Amino acid sequence: MTISPLGDSALLVDFGDESSSAPELLDRALSVAAQLRRAKLRGVAEVTSAYQSVTVFLHLSDIDALPDIASHFERQIGQIVAPGQRVKTKGRLIEVPVCYGPEFALDEQRVTSATGLPFNSVVELHAAGEFIVACIGFMPGFPYLAGLPEALHLPRLPAPRARVPAGSVAVANGQAGIYPFESPGGWNIIGRTHLRLFDPGKTPPALLAPGDKVRFRKISREEFHHALASVEVR
Amino acid sequence: MTVLVTAAGFQTTVQDCGRVGWRPFGVTPGGALDAATLRLANLLVGNDETAAGLEIASGRVQLRFCDERLIAWGGGRFKVKIARDSSPPLRCACVAPGESCEILATHGRAWLAVSGGIDVPLVLGSRATDLRARFGGFNGRALRDGDELPLGARTQSELRIAAQITGRLANWTGPYSSPAAPERMTTLRTIRGQHWTAEAGAKLLEGNFRVAINSDRMGLRLEGKTIPRTHAGMLVSQPVTPGTIQLPTNGAPIVLLADCQTIGGYPRLAHVISVDLARAAQLQPMDYVRFELTTLGFAQQLARQREREIAIFRAGIRTRFA
Description:
The complex is a heterodimer.
Chain A: E1 2-5, E2 10-14, H1 22-39, E3 44-50, E4 53-58, H2 69-80, E5 93-98, H3 108-115, H4 119-128, E6 130-136, E7 143-146, E8 161-164, E9 168-172, E10 175-178, E11 183-185, E12 188-192, E13 213-218, H5 221-233
Parallel strand pairs in A: 5-13
Antiparallel strand pairs in A: 1-2, 2-4, 3-4, 6-7, 6-13, 7-10, 8-11, 9-10, 9-12
Chain B: E1 2-10, E2 13-15, H1 35-44, E3 53-56, E4 58-65, E5 69-82, E6 85-86, E7 93-95, E8 100-114, E9 148-150, H2 156-163, E10 185-192, H3 198-205, E11 209-211, E12 219-223, E13 238-239, E14 244-246, E15 254-256, E16 263-264, E17 268-272, H4 277-280, E18 288-293, H5 296-320
Parallel strand pairs in B: 10-18
Antiparallel strand pairs in B: 1-4, 1-9, 2-3, 3-8, 4-8, 5-6, 5-7, 5-8, 10-17, 11-12, 11-18, 12-15, 13-16, 14-15, 14-17
């Protein structure tokens, strides 16, 4: 574990130097983030985690009297994150219904030719996997999902698409993801969900949180349109 | 009560001090690019520092008020007029019902506070406009001609301030030494980032960069010089924050600003110190910027010093109008 400044108002706690597998590092980061949130340290504004690191954002105005901010927090974090004090984080299991129809799987051809698999095998692999939310970023509510079967590891598109529809389910760089809004994007699109991934009027605003487990379930075009209509009525 | 936007300028947005606590869900902190100046302007008109005001970037903005309000502004090289009277920066001014305020942007950005605050709904604890995710502020977008912005109720502190103004302008202001002003050449102080290397760092600190045309509230894109790569291949995505200087593979650095995304996979070469983000907020395309190296301890000392200056400003106004 190394602690280094991220600018003058945040500290990055990085576990990348610990020789563990990616899932173990993610588990460690989630556990440390939970411990640091629970500790409610004075001067800490928020705590986030991503893959193999945790970041502690500071409110410098709340800690005006401290002579040396960096070493104070390094010491405090070090004590809280002492080895052997792991917190078991329990993510929820969330099912995401996906229609993999050709009108939604915008990159069906690219994916089949790059993987050498027929598209129904791609769908089976994608819908059989259990994923874990490694972090949320890129845009509000966009989940980076670890756990993609190796056969579906693909590069991004050579040039990003100007307009990816909201709800698009995608794979790239060894990960899966879901676009919460219509936006530009460079991942391979293989389906669409009717679920709303981000709603600023709700607390919390995102459907998924780091550490949650995700399973995709294949649904028909009729189920998709029916579900979408009921979402829009609400 | 409302204020009518008769001319919206270009990329004028409702902003406050930003949203805290939603980064784990990918929500950017956002808010005024120079929150300190917005806070001072708010204090001058009797608002809470966290009230929402307008961030004005360029063009001509004209506002028509339907009731009496106090306004104050600060920031770039702007010309502000209420009816025929000019209104200097960081000075409280009185606007009568039906009068218009005209703001002409020449260089940089400015923040305008209106007594009562811009009363758009709170979204995730803030009224700041998130342009990229299209929520917050006024309908999640930049202002357009003809928009009618809701204003908060007039407060006791505002009425006490208004009672002491004879004519248009207050004859007092708060004590504040260092508002950031736009310059054609701006120096930003930085501290080393996790991926700093001697070679790339030397290139960052040597000579000038030009601010590229596609810079926005997410980041200043810099051009004119290429910085050698510090890492081969992709890095594991890690958090970034306003001030982070990212180095994409093309070698053209990006200084992230308030609307930046929450994580990034590019090397983090350095970080602009917090207090200098107010200077970065004044940069516009074709301006020049150079970087200097400072220490973490000094950067934090400056940040705390600025908070103390704002506290003195606040205390000064409270004492005067208690």
